[in-house]
Design goal:
Order of helices and strands: HHHHHHHHHHHEHEEHHEHEEHHHHHHH
Radius of gyration: 30 Å
Distance between the termini: 78 Å
Number of strands: 6
Number of helices: 22
Helix content: 55-70%
Strand order of the largest sheet: 1-2-3
Length: about 450
């Protein structure tokens, strides 16, 4: 049932101060819908409804909220409510909240944590931004190789209540080093007297806390896991990262690449929450840079002004040629950026990709060149048709190769290949296309 349908009932319970009935009404609601309900209420009603939730439910609902909504709610809660909320949040959700809040607010939140949670939060916040350490939760159940299966299951029952997931159980040595992992069904189906060591094959996959979050996305994709252990540089088990956290990162990375692909600086928050000034700031820089690059195109036209005056029909085909080149370059750049991002193509394979795109560029150029030549003959005669046809072949080939090689160059210099955006590729292709077009025109017309 949508929260909109029962919102009047919720408001009546608040007005009547029937807190028990309110709590009961929200007990079976999904956390995602309760978070939507909260943000549809005014600030006073929002706090009342939030305080009516159980601690565990409140923490779950809070984790579903957008950052700005979380911050607004925190400002309205009393200190004691905030303290309880922070204590019940999963460590990874708490870390994400604290790292995104303004520094002064983060310090106030940290002061409300107990010693254990404070130490945990400071440890997690100590990892580099966008590292796996920022995603992990240290609440993990681990067993020892020397235990029997029965001892391991007893340990899991006693210590598994706070673990984010129990699908996989980890095996560590006395020094905390990770040595293996089991799916919980392996333990449930094994003989209770069997030693954990006898079940081990020491084949496991782990992430390093200092690794980039994008690396975690690839590992989850490659191994099809719902959770992965996180270790330090010496192999000591620190915690786990679950697939829901990685999916959040994947969504953010995809959004960032979409923004860069349109020559827009990535937004720090969603479009709905962004102000006019932040949207302006994310776009004006790239557009200003592209103006400077476009000056090259203007310079090419100025340099070949006499050629253009000698055959004014050439001007008719400028939009056709440069738009075609920009489109071809944007296509190849999009394909290559995606291939690099998904590890389908490695940096070392640039020559093979370049060779493949030469063939593709020639085929595309010939087909489009023939079509353009026919149009050129119809519009300006055989000479113009020859110029336009040859120019189209050259422009498509060059634009295709620029769109292919630029993402590799950016990757080589540890820059995001998504910066090879459609507007950037189009602008480069425009300048190169005009130079090719007028060079061919000058050569053909000069020889006739």
């Amino acid at each position: 049932m949508s929260y909109i349908a029962v919102k009047p009932e919720i408001e009546e319970l608040i007005e009547a101060r029937k807190w028990d009935a309110l709590q009961e009404a929200l007990t079976d609601w999904p956390a995602a819908e309760i978070s939507e309900l909260l943000m549809s209420l005014d600030s006073v009603e929002r706090v009342v409804v939030f305080r009516a939730l159980s601690r565990r439910k409140a923490a779950e609902v809070f984790s579903w909220m957008d950052r700005d909504d979380q911050e607004a709610l925190l400002y309205n809660l009393q200190e004691d409510d905030t303290r309880k909320l922070l204590a019940n949040l999963a460590p990874d959700d708490r870390t994400r909240l604290l790292e995104e809040l303004p520094a002064t607010v983060t310090q106030r939140m940290l002061s409300l944590l107990n010693k254990e949670d404070l130490a945990e939060a400071r440890e997690l916040l100590g990892y580099p931004e966008e590292s796996v350490g920022r995603l992990m939760t240290p609440d993990v159940v681990a067993i020892r190789p020397g235990w029997t299966v029965e001892e391991a299951l007893v340990h899991i029952r006693e210590n598994g209540k706070d673990s984010e997931t129990l699908n996989v159980i980890y095996v560590v040595n006395d020094d905390g080093s990770l040595v293996d992992d089991f799916r919980v069904r392996q333990l449930l189906l094994a003989d209770p007297e069997t030693s954990v060591r006898d079940l081990m094959d020491e084949a496991f996959v782990a992430l390093q806390a200092s690794a980039d979050q994008e690396d975690a996305i690839q590992v989850f994709r490659d191994y099809d896991r719902v959770a992965l252990p996180v270790t330090d540089s010496e192999g000591v088990l620190l915690g786990i990262v679950t697939v829901d956290d990685v999916l959040d990162v994947a969504r953010e990375e995809a959004t960032e690449d979409f923004h860069k692909g349109a020559a827009v600086s990535p937004l720090r928050q969603g479009y709905r929450e962004s102000s006019i000034w932040s949207l302006f700031g994310s776009r004006v820089g790239w557009l200003s840079i592209l103006i400077l690059v476009n000056l090259v195109s203007s310079g090419v036209i100025a340099a070949y002004e006499e050629t253009l005056e000698a055959a004014i029909a050439l001007a008719f085909f400028i939009p056709l040629l440069i738009d075609s080149g920009g489109n071809a370059g944007a296509q190849s750049a999009t394909l290559m950026v995606r291939a690099i991002a998904t590890k389908n193509v490695e940096l070392s394979q640039w020559a093979k990709a370049f060779g493949k795109e030469i063939a593709v560029g020639i085929l595309l150029g010939v087909v489009m060149g023939l079509l353009s030549a026919v149009l050129g003959i119809f519009r300006g005669g055989p000479e113009i048709g020859l110029i336009v046809g040859l120019a189209m072949v050259g422009i498509i080939l060059v634009a295709n190769l620029v769109g292919t090689i630029l993402p590799f160059i950016l990757t080589y210099f540890d820059l995001d290949p998504a910066v090879a955006s459609a507007p950037l590729i189009t602008t480069i292709a425009d300048a190169a296309g005009l130079l090719i077009y007028f060079s061919i025109a000058a050569a053909v017309l000069g020889s006739i």
